């Protein structure tokens, strides 16, 4: 009789070769498995640099201008500057030994701040009278509407300079950065007398600043367009060209 083959049973244990292969494949976990999950800390970004603290000289200069604007020349003393700047007594005297030196510190700081407001290197670049009028009006309006305390300091120091020859020289030297670009502008615009015409522009601007800061027009600051029109009229009269 023919023999019947017995079908393989489900769940039959694997052969020895299969068992040894399985053992070999799973006997040793991989290095990554042994080390576990990656616990490497993410790289930290460098902290943002903090703005540098004001220097002691800067604190003294700013405090001196603040006192000039609030109290006038009589209120500017070494002790008052120390108190206003929050510095130990004697700090201002160590920085500026004399009153003359303290005033020069104030003039120097005033010139720096005015240069930021007026920006002569940026605004006095157009040789076209119309462009020159627009630039001058923009700078003047920015000064009149946002820096009136600086104007008060300017007048306090200018008056004091009339009584102190050394300060007068220092004050005039600090103001040269504004006069020289203006003379160059008048030359480029075709002025036959650039020095005299520059003086006329300075006188117009100074008069406007005084009238609107401490004079009879202090409550009626002109608009930028009004300043531009006035400056254009002045340039047109001097240069004989159409400006504005």
Automatic annotation (TrEMBL):
This is TetR family transcriptional regulator. GO terms for molecular function: DNA binding. Residues 54-114 form the HTH tetR-type domain. Residues 77-96 bind DNA. Residues 9-55 have a biased composition (Low complexity). SUPFAM superfamilies: Homeodomain-like. The keyword Metal-binding does not apply. It comes from the Bacteria. Residues 1-55 are annotated as: Disordered. Keywords: DNA-binding.
């Amino acid at each position: 009789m023919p023999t019947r083959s017995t079908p393989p049973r489900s769940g039959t244990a694997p052969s020895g070769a299969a068992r040894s292969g399985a053992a070999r494949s799973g006997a040793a976990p991989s290095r990554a498995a042994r080390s576990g999950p990656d616990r490497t800390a993410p790289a930290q970004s460098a902290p943002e640099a903090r703005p540098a603290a004001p220097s002691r000289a800067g604190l003294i200069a700013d405090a001196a201008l603040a006192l000039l604007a609030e109290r006038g020349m009589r209120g500017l003393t070494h002790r008052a500057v120390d108190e206003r700047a929050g510095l130990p007594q004697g700090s201002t005297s160590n920085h500026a030994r004399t009153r003359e030196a303290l005033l020069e510190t104030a003039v120097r700081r005033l010139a720096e701040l005015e240069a930021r407001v007026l920006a002569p290197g940026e605004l006095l670049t157009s040789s076209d009278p119309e462009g020159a009028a627009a630039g001058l009006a923009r700078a003047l309006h920015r000064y009149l509407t946002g820096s009136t305390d600086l104007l008060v300091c300017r007048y306090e120091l200018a008056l004091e300079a009339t009584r102190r020859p050394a300060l007068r020289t220092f004050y005039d030297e600090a103001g040269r950065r504004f006069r020289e670009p203006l003379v160059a502008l008048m030359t480029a615009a075709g002025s036959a007398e650039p020095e005299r015409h520059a003086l006329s522009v300075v006188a117009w601007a100074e008069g406007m600043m005084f009238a609107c800061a401490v004079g009879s027009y202090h409550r009626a600051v002109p608009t930028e367009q009004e300043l531009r029109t006035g400056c254009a009229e002045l340039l047109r009269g001097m240069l004989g060209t159409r400006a504005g």
